[in-house]
Amino acid sequence: MKTDAFEDGGIIPERYAGRGGNVRPGFAFSNVPAGTVSFAIILQDLDVAANGADGILHWLTWNIPAVAAGIPEGSLPEGAVAGTSGVGRGTYFGPGAPAGPRYHHYVFELYALSKMLDLPADATRAQLLDAMRDSIVGKAAYVGRFRQ
What we know:
Structural class: mainly beta
CATH topology: Phosphatidylethanolamine-binding Protein
Number of domains: 1
Strand content: 25-35%
Helix content: under 10%
Distance between the termini: 26 Å
Low-confidence stretches: none
């Protein structure tokens, strides 16, 4: 999992932030595990404990076809489902850490799955994790940092 938008562990540009352009960064997927049919992505801010151990959910998407080999910036391949973000601001809400000296860590988790998922667009993170539990064939993560 790689993006040209920012380095892994680097600073996320304002363009991708919730109060900035709120544009989803594009990602390329490589070294895809054998048997991968689709991908799912979960984006969360791990530095906020408002929802318990899960952090704040900023984006869910699933049924990204394996043949797509990634997602283009600002859009999704045909057939992909964009779920509702946990902050209630549509399907993607970019980083929005408050002003201050401390950066928040935003983790894009990529799951390679052996099947397509049968979930409604309003599925929760828990429902997504449950639906893909027995079909995960690989996982990768990409981290960005952000503060106002």
